[in-house]
Amino acid sequence: MAATPLVVMGCAWLIQSDSLLWIAVAVCVLLPALVVAGAMCGPGAGPGTCVAILGFALLLFVGPAMNDYVLDRRGDRQEGVVTSIEGYHKKHGDGRECSVEGTHSGRTHTYEVNDTVGCGEGMERGQRVTLVVDPDGWLTTRLSNAVHGLSTGMAWTCGGLLAAMEASILYGRMRRRRR
After folding, report:
1. 168 alpha-carbon distance from chain centroid
2. Which residue from 66, 148, 146 is spatially nearest to 100, judged by alpha carbons?
3. What residue ranges are annotated as transmembrane (predicted)?
């Protein structure tokens, strides 16, 4: 029960990977953990339901927060050149995907960067850009204009969700039971 927030944070980190296997593992670990934590809060739907909902909300916020923090602190910044730009159709408009060749340690790597991580309207073929690459290869490569670090609002949101989840667990465990 006390490890529920750690399980949620670990699963949020696993979901940041592009691998469907890790996402499936995270879901298979998270759902039973939230159900058990909710059931351990005692009879009644109040605290247990709050634990499950707040745990899922924490998962949605803490994963991207850790992603932003890690890329800002540990990300390897390297120069690159946009080699091609391709457009594609999304549900609500058009999207863009840029191929960027980055050179690091004398080796040339090609990275695919889409519009959600920096490939915007102002990009042109041959343009010099700065890439932010995760040294472990776990997180998606971004352009430096899309890496802003952990925002204060995101940190407060994650902290508030964590505190609310812990308060729900504490309330559910401490309330009086009918005999």
Report:
1. 24
2. 146
3. 20-41, 48-66, 153-172
Is this prediction's pTM over 0.90?
no
- Given a contact cutoff of 8 angstroms between Cβ atoms, the answer to whether 65 and 13 are in contact is no
Residue 67: closest CA among 23, 131, 16: 16
List residues bridging with 114 in a β-sheet: 97
Going from the C-alpha of 92 to that of each of 89, 159, 163, the distances in angstroms are 8, 32, 36
Task: For residue range 42-94, list pLDDT tens digits in order.
Answer: 777 788 888 889 999 999 999 888 888 888 888 888 888 888 888 877 777 77
Quote the CA–CA distance of 168 and 5 in Å, as a whole number. Answer: 12
* Spatial separation of the C-alpha atoms in residues 37 and 39, rounded to whole Å: 5
Helix (H) or strand (E) holding 79: strand 76-90
Segment (H or E) for 113: strand 107-114
The rounded distance, in Å, linking the Cα atoms of 93 and 74 is 33
Inter-residue contact 10 to 62 (CB < 8 Å): no
Measured CA to CA, the distance from residue 139 to residue 136 in angstroms comes to 8
